[in-house]
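Subject: sequence -> structure tokens, single chain

Hey, anyone have a minute? Need the predicted structure for the following. Not urgent.
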Amino acid sequence: MRTFLMALVACCAMTAIGQVTITSTERLLLPAGKHWTAPRFSPDGQSIFLTTSGYRGIWQFRPVTGALQEITDEPGAGYGFSVSADGTRLAYRRTSFGATVFDRTQEIIDLDLRTLDAVTLARGRDLSVPTYHANGVLYQEMEANDLAKAAGAATARPVVMGVDGTGIALLLDGKRHSLDPFGNGHYIWPALSPDGTQLVAYEMARGTFVCDLNGRVTAELGRRDGPVWMRSGKWLVYMDDRDDGHALVSSDLYCVSPDGFSTVRLTDTSDLELEPDCSPTENVIVCSTLNGEVLLLRYAEVGE
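Reply:
Had a minute. Here:
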């Protein structure tokens, strides 16, 4: 009887969340000759930022007008950049080399998207990728006083600052914390939920998981690559990419509820959809494809 009741509760949890349906698919009209990859929405939802193979360069695409603007063509700039909440500024990490690959210099660049004027905020051999917060740009190597000043009010929204040597770097209550939910874990793809109360990340030996801001794991979801939150917070979108040991042979998009009870397949095509990101303002998913195109997938959350 107890087993039956537990199954019934699980079934109710699965059906209560509803479903997700793709309603339309659009290919962005981008210039040929470049392999576009890693598309991301700006926080205001008005732009999509793109890079190319090897994370070379950053471009800004405006879906409403179809306008494409090159921000920078620097190698590696497209990895881990950040856009301000109002969509007017962009921070990225610039890397340059001397006579050998061991002679490396990295810089944190803060750039005005309206004028393309740029300011160098930090310089060193090894710097983390930057992220925006209430009062400015944050990066992990900042001195505690500078970090507190940039963080602003202790009650401001938490910020994921990436991963560090011991776990997931999180700015919480105006202070920097390092979360290691599994103990000696190796983490990638950390992302804060839309309501700021949960994290999703991927641990290399265990797969995707959801935890609270204290690092308490609430769900282990297994191999679900590149997880990102839908704007409702009710689903995580991810890619189910498969290879033959040498090359990618398939990849489709799915979504899963944060508790792991419900999974929905979103695509079933020959495009090999990769690297999804969800708009924070509309029911839209953007993703790249294996051949370097970019797709916009509009969806509806139904049956709730």
